[in-house]
Structure formats: C-alpha cells, structure tokens
Design a protein that fits this description.
This protein has helices spanning about 15-25, 40-50, and strands spanning about 1-5, 30-35, 55-60, 65-70. It is α+β, with helices and mostly antiparallel strands.
Length: about 80
C-alpha cells in the first residue's frame, strides 16, 4: 500500500515534521511516497541511521519524489 505525502510549498521545518509523523505511522506493508521541493539530505541521514530503505528521483520543475519503507523492509520496484 502506498501512502502519499505532498509537502511541496511548505516552509521548514513543516515538511520534516510531517514526514517524521508519517514515518512513525508506517506499517511494514506500506511505502511512504514524499513529494518535496528539494532533495532532503538531512532526512536521508536519519533514514540511513534508522535502517530505512529509500530511493529518490528528481522530477525537475515538479520537485523531488522520495519513496521510503520501514526498517528491515525491502523497497519494492517502482510501478
């Protein structure tokens, strides 16, 4: 199941706070898909620390998309 969180246009720290709330509620069968204005390098350090799996892509003028799974769960192939 995919959970989509679009935080484009929000001022810091709102995107980070909403992302952390969504991650806390994520179940092993879910993938969190984030839509952001920029690459969230500080978030990547936290995801690495917590052993979450993630990937990201640059969507050009539309921002960035990041997909995240909970710790220990493999990231599925993108549809």
């Amino acid at each position: 199941m995919n959970v989509v969180l679009d935080v484009r246009g929000l001022e810091p720290p709102e995107p980070f706070e909403r992302t952390m709330e969504a991650l806390a509620d994520l179940t092993p069968d879910q993938v969190l898909t984030l839509r952001l204005d920029r690459v969230p390098y500080p978030l990547f350090r936290i995801l690495d620390r917590d052993a979450c799996r993630y990937d990201w892509r640059d969507d050009g003028a539309d921002g960035v998309t990041v997909r995240i799974t909970p710790p220990g769960v493999e990231l599925p192939e993108e549809e």
